[in-house]
Amino acid sequence: MHTQVGIIGAGPAGLVLSHLLHLKGIESVVLENRPRQYCEERVRAGVLEQGTVDLLCEMGVGERLKKEGLVHGGIELRFGGKGHRIDFRELTGGKTITIYGQSEVLKDLTNARLAAGGQVYFDVDDVSVHDFVGNKPKIRFARNSKPEDLTCDLIAGCDGFHGICRPAISQALTIYEREYPFGWLGILAEAPPSSEELIYAYHERGFALLSMRSPQLSRLYIQCSPEEDIHLWPDEKIWGELHKRLESTEGWKLIEGPITQKGVTGMRSFVAEPMQYGNLFLAGDAAHIVPPTGAKGLNLAVADVRVLAQAIVEFYKSGKRHLLNQYSATCLRRVWKVQRFSWWMTSMFHLFPDASPFDQKRQMAELDYVTSSRAGAQTLAENYVGLPM
Ligand code: FAD
Ligand code: DHB
Rounded to 5 degrees, what angle do the CA atoms 365, 268, 300 make? Predict the structure, then answer.
């Protein structure tokens, strides 16, 4: 089998890249080691930046997103029992975010790829990359237990944090990393969201976040230990903790409902540099991870492949590699700004196990500053809605 671009991973990065290339007449094959249903049912990110929404719409995969996505013009920061709204529209010249689950984005992208005759192979095994330093890169994999070779001009490693592409070039990489001494326990509940907008809550018991997926579905998170055993968290205990951490002196009430999914996620900041070696290009979580507090993981993955698609289009049009050669440096400028923002949001809202009373007073002062100074609020708002490309 031969194609122009071999893409490993059918997450947001791999599928957006494949479809962007298709729209420019460039052929790709996407290899995914999980079944389609698993990819489409995994509960992950939920907040889309304006730029991500615009790109999906320009690509022709925004029809359901425009109908079902919830457009939000701000978020609430809650501390000391009081809410403080950050007004995105007013602070960023009209920009908004859209709540639309990653699983829905993946369904739309997969449908669009398949409807256009795209080659997306789910459930493949034993994927490995070869000869990417030269001009004849090759991907080996097994389909229905039969080994196959896919030769291509370029390989895109869109296989997430636990994929095989980054380890394949580890000798060429420098890793920058930070682990956090906490994780998030997340639930999906059949309950109408208790607030029209997201609530990020600072509390002496730890961080809590109220989000949603639809007018009937709430998504909520609480800060927990990174090794938290989910079996020790019956539903009543989760709701009890959410009530305490989201408490308000302003007459606000948390609406409960049956919990349909729960899980624990660890938190880390991670960057691998450079994001390219020979003809192998890393994009999305394969190259970097952010802690989820700024809702940036999916958006950053999409920003990477937008840059990569442009470079690949230029390569096929002119035969020149200059944009391909700049790919890593171009992406990393954004990656580090988003790392900084995600680290900052995480540091501002979470209770660190070794925090002193001084640290906690400082956190409160920072929240007070961000919500009472226009400059402070604007810094948060312009990063949250997404920095310009
Ligand atoms: P992925 O979505 O990870 O896609 C990579 C794909 O490659 C996967 O489908 C994987 O199965 C496949 N793959 C892996 N190895 C191989 C292989 N060897 N061969 C073939 N295919 C392979 N971000 C937020 O902004 N907000 C959140 O609330 C949030 N929650 C998250 C919860 C969890 C549990 C996780 C893991 C991540 C979460 N994220 C969140 C991050 C966000 O979902 C990711 O940043 C985003 O999915 C990155 O997209 P991607 O395409 O780069 O990688
Ligand atoms: C969601 C996840 C986030 O990490 C975040 O900061 C906001 C919302 C969500 O899953 O809805």
Answer: 90
Ligand that lies nearest to the alpha carbon of residue 301, given by its number in the listed order: 1
Within the chain, strands assigned E span: 5-8, 28-31, 47-48, 70-72, 74-79, 82-87, 97-99, 119-121, 125-130, 138-143, 146-151, 154-157, 174-189, 199-201, 208-214, 217-224, 259-273, 276-277, 280-282, 288-289
The residue type of 136 is: K
Give distance in angstroms: CA of 315 to centre of ligand 2.
36
Contact between 158 and 304 under an 8 Å Cβ cutoff? The reply is no
| CA 28–ligand 2 middle distance (angstroms) | 31
Q: Going by C-beta distance under 8 Å and a sequence separation of 6 or more, which residues neighbour residue 333?
A: none
Cα–Cα distance, 228 to 246 (Å, whole number):
20
Choosing from 211, 298, 338, 350 the residue with most ligand 2 atoms within 8 A of its CB, the one to mutate for a pocket test is 211
**Under a CB-based contact definition with an 8 Å cutoff, are residues 104 and 53 in contact?**
no
Q: What are phi and psi of 100, to 5 degrees?
A: -160, 120
Q: How much of the chain is in helix, strand and coil states, percent to nearest 5?
A: 40, 30, 30
| pTM, two decimal places | 0.97
Ligand 2 atom with least separation from CA of 212: 11
Task: Identify the band that residue 221 occupies on the pLDDT scale cut at 50, 70 and 90.
Answer: very high
* CA distance linking residue 287 with residue 275, whole number of Å: 6
Is 101 touching ligand 1 by the criterion CB < 6 Å?
Answer: no
Q: Which residues pair with 268 in a beta bridge?
A: 179
CA 297 to CA 345: how far, in whole Å?
14
Percent of the chain with pLDDT over 90: 99
Specify whether the CB–CB gap between 185 and 35 falls below 8 A. Answer: no
Which ligand is nearest to the Cα of residue 296, counting in written order?
1
In the chain, count of helices (H) and strands (E)? 12, 20
In total, the chain counts a number of residues equal to 389
Instruction: Provide the pLDDT confidence category of residue 389 given band limits of 50, 70 and 90.
Output: confident
